[in-house]
Amino acid sequence: MKKISFFSADFRDGRIRISNKIYSAGTFATHLLNQYYKDDTAARLAVYKQYSWHLYDTISAGYLDNTDVLRSGWEIHQILKTLPKLQPFTKLDVEAECIRIAELFTENNADFIREYFNAKAQILAMGINKSALDLLPIEIDKVQQKTADNLLNDMMTTLAFYDRISNDMREAFEGLTEFCNRLDEAERFDEPHLLPIALDIFGNEKLYMTSEYVAMRKTAKSKTIVTARRMFFDKYYSFVLTDFFEGLHYGHYPRRCPICKRYFLMTSARRQVYCNGTAPYTLKGKPITCRKYAARMKEKELSEGNPINPIYKSRCSGIRVEQKRSTITAEFAAMALKVAKEYWQKAKFDDGYANGQFRTDMKRENLYRETDRRIKQK
User: In 3-state terms, what secondary structure has residue 227?
Assistant: First the structure.
């Protein structure tokens, strides 16, 4: 086995198909941005690789301990219990993968590999003349040697995949976050303008995968069959970057909505800033989309007599003065300005907050206390 067969996806014309469902390319890179911190799922995956990492190293050195094999299987099962909370694993056959892991990391397989290592030691101990004539000891079975090679390859590929998955998520998340933060550098949001930013961040990363051509329906309801590329990924990182760059090729890119702070997938070169999701605020007690919220917010900004504006401007001015005097650091000032802006934006739409808690939150000691808390949580 040279691939994690259960982790595959089909790509064609800016679309990705997983488990017979079709999505816009770039969907799963956007999912990672939204799900990375949810329930600390990505962080919890990093806990389960103590024995897997050790087993990988010992096998690479030519020996193993049966207990490590069994414990590694257990660790991977714990990872597989957590993965379905994240995309795209909700759509993959995790149950079948659990069965494969249970059949792979067994004591019988551990014994078989140990015998294989013993046989290799005998071969290496042979004299030069016997080696040249291919005169293997009678007890060395070439078929068993081939079976052992395949089993070892399967085990090593699996160990590497699950050992890397938490780091893959972190590296992909950090890169994609930087990409979203640098979107405004582009004159237009199309491939020629966005690709240089993406390449500057991700460089020429080597993506570990194998591929084959398969037939798929042109659309979910179409009877027309077309050719697609089925890719099998040896690393989660390779999957996310493939999804991201495939999307970028067709003008798809993730953005972060400044209202709800969630990421959404844009599929055109328009400079749409806000998403169509539900805003974290209400209008007269009713839900409102982020785009409508932003429109109403701009209307309120035009109101010269809005009493919250002088409070906000005065506090921001005070923060900048303190930064210039070096009584607060640049990092602290940037976070304080961010918190103040959040309070200000909330006050624009929530009259109850604007007439009450807003003034309290904008006081220097309260604002700086919240700023200090957020910096420590980073």
Answer: strand
Question: For residue 177, what pLDDT is reported?
Answer: 94
* Separation of alpha carbons 141 and 159, rounded Å: 27
Radius of gyration of the chain (CA): 28
| Amino acid code (one letter) for 331 | E
pTM of the model: 0.68
Query: What dihedral angle (degrees, nearest 10) is formed by the CA atoms of 37, 41, 46, 48?
Result: 170
pLDDT of residue 1: 42
The string of DSSP codes covering 248-274 is HHTT-EEEE-TTT--EEEE-SSS---S
- Do residues 257 and 293 lie in contact, with contact meaning Cβ atoms separated by under 8 Å? no
Instruction: Tell me the CA distances in angstroms from 163 to 6, 44, 144, 238, 254, one per residue in order.
Output: 17, 13, 28, 14, 27
Pick left, alpha or beta for residue 360 (phi over 0 → left; psi -120 to 50 → alpha; otherwise beta).
Answer: alpha
Segment holding 20, helix H or strand E: none
Rounded-to-integer distance, Cα 214 and Cα 230, Å: 6
pLDDT for position 176:
94
- For residue 339, the Cα-to-chain-centroid distance in whole angstroms is 27
SS3 state of residue 133: coil
Q: What is the largest CA-CA distance in the chain?
A: 98
Q: Long-range contact list for 223-232, CB < 8 A, 24+ apart? A: 226/12, 227/12, 228/10, 228/11, 228/12, 228/17, 229/10, 229/11, 229/12, 230/8, 230/9, 230/10, 231/8, 231/9, 231/10, 231/11, 232/3, 232/4, 232/5, 232/7, 232/8
Cα–Cα distance between 271 and 133 in angstroms, integer?
Answer: 71
pLDDT for res 258: 86
Quote the CA–CA distance of 312 and 306 in Å, as a whole number. Answer: 11
Total Cβ atoms within 10 A of residue 180: 15
Walking along the chain (378 residues) 10 residues at a time, the average pLDDT comes out as: 67 85 90 83 75 86 88 90 83 86 92 83 63 52 78 88 87 93 86 91 79 78 82 87 92 90 83 82 80 73 68 93 93 94 84 86 94 88
Residue 165, token pair as written in the block: 């998955």
